Amino acid sequence: METENKKIILAVDDSLLICKQIRAALADMPVFLCEAHSGREALELAEQYQPDLILLDVVLPDTDGYQLFRRLKEADKNNASIIFLTSKDKDEDVIRGFSMGACDYIKKPFAKGELQSRAQAHLQMKEQRDELDRQNRELRSNMEKLNYLAFRDGLTGLYNRRYVVGDLMDDIGRSNLEETENVLILADIDDFKNINDTYGHEAGDLALVCIANIMEANCRKHKVIRWGGEEFLIALFNVTREEAFGISERIRREVEEFKVFSGEQEFSCTITMGLHVYGNHEGIEESVDKADKALYYGKRHGKNQSVW
Ligand code: GH3
Ligand code: MG
Ligand code: MG
Ligand code: MG
């Protein structure tokens, strides 16, 4: 391509003589220079080349430079710097130019060397600005990734316990409709120590991932959190008690029926679920404690069941 990674300058001036002077002034610079002689042409070339720097005349045949300035800015995706290059030399003209957002103002007639050094300086500043923008975007994207990872469990990809402190409380606060409840379920894998002892820790990890997937698949509108080692907290929003119990039992049955294949081995797990209706004035810890009591009851009374 003709621009070949060069900085691009768009000169807008209806005078062919001025265009020639600009060309001469910038001749030594490694830039790609394009010229427009009217407002319409300027907009077309700006769209086509996305210049880094625009030298803008004020008096033009089809528009005035101030109006054109606004339209160039609106269409600009490259954050171009714009310098007014004009014979309008009153103080108020200069002030108007800067107040519109021009980065510089050069009066005609101009000295070649001055135009060149100002153009150079503004291209350099633009490069630094672009680099800062790039670093900023990278930083923001890294922050987003970190923020995501901070609230995720590394093994299962579920939310981790840190999520509960902030966002889950917000979710619970938002979702309280009349006639439905928010229900917390604390789920714990039965005899998981035996699973690890019998099939190995890796097989245990695989079982955790499979169970997490089953829970997620049944809780699209809700939240599943890896609460601890082999414990999960499920927050169901805006459900009736019947619906909550139904979801709990469906998960429990699907887990029971699911076969985990690890190497040559094949096994299945069961889980016990403790359910508790989240009380509006309860703290999360208090509420989880109550779900834990129901879970404990289930563990004492045969496991592999859902208990209020
Ligand atoms: P119960 O039915 O009463 O819940 O018995 P349990 O054996 O499941 O409970 P216990 O608390 O005695 O043991 C939990 C086991 O879970 C022990 C621990 O090694 C295992 N565990 C916890 N986190 C992980 C993990 O990330 N991966 C694997 N493979 N095992 C884990
Ligand atoms: Mg003119
Ligand atoms: Mg446990
Ligand atoms: Mg257990």
Automatic annotation (TrEMBL):
Residues 118-149 form a coiled coil. Transmembrane segments: none annotated. Pfam families: GGDEF, Response_reg. One of its GO terms (molecular function) is diguanylate cyclase activity. InterPro entries: CheY-like_superfamily (IPR011006), Diguanylate_Cyclase (IPR050469), GGDEF_dom (IPR000160), Nucleotide_cyclase (IPR029787), Rev_trsase/Diguanyl_cyclase (IPR043128), Sig_transdc_resp-reg_receiver (IPR001789). May play the central regulatory role in sporulation. It may be an element of the effector pathway responsible for the activation of sporulation genes in response to nutritional stress. Spo0A may act in concert with spo0H (a sigma factor) to control the expression of some genes that are critical to the sporulation process. This is Stage 0 sporulation protein A homolog. The lineage of its organism: Bacteria, Bacillati, Bacillota, Clostridia, Lachnospirales.
